[in-house]
Write a structure and sequence with these properties.
147 residues, binds zinc ion, single chain, 0% strand, mainly alpha, zinc-finger, zinc ion binding
Length: 147
């Protein structure tokens, strides 16, 4: 530390120390903020995954009940209902896909592999996981797979 002051003789030792202490404080704060941004709250992620899973579960059951409900005999209504059925079936399918993704994410949480891209092994950005808690891929891989 003594040598550092030799290099900056224009700053008096007292003033230099205050300056460096202040700088250190700012750096510490920045580091803490960085850590908070980078850190993924696993408990929080798990809670939102489980919440979404139970939402999907009840939605799927509602869809199943709707699909199994007896149809009206009116031809016109029947046509409309048939279209509705297709939408319901698609909803059911995407819901089932999402449930599978969430289950896989919960398994990765259990295995300590949560937040690691299943394709390239890189860390998945925390912002991405906050938006998509069940994301199995990092940004780059998701783009690569989609394209
Ligand atoms: Zn990746």
């Amino acid at each position: 530390m003594k040598n550092a002051y030799v290099a900056t003789p224009s700053i008096q030792q007292g003033a230099g120390l205050t300056y460096i202490k202040a700088l250190g404080g700012v750096l510490c704060e920045a580091l803490v903020q960085l850590e908070e941004i980078a850190m993924i709250d696993l408990a929080k992620q798990k809670t939102s995954l489980l919440k979404r899973l139970s939402e999907l579960d009840s939605r799927l059951h509602a869809i199943e009940a709707e699909l199994e409900a007896p149809h009206s005999k009116d031809w016109e209504e029947l046509a409309v209902e048939r279209e509705g059925d297709e939408v319901l079936e698609q909803l059911g399918q995407s819901g089932q896909d999402e449930i599978l993704r969430i289950r896989a994410a919960l398994k990765r949480l259990r295995d300590g592999e949560y937040g690691i891209c299943v394709r390239c092994g890189d860390d998945i950005a925390a912002e991405r996981l906050n938006i998509l808690p069940d994301a199995p891929l990092c940004n780059e891989c998701a783009t690569a797979v989609a394209g």
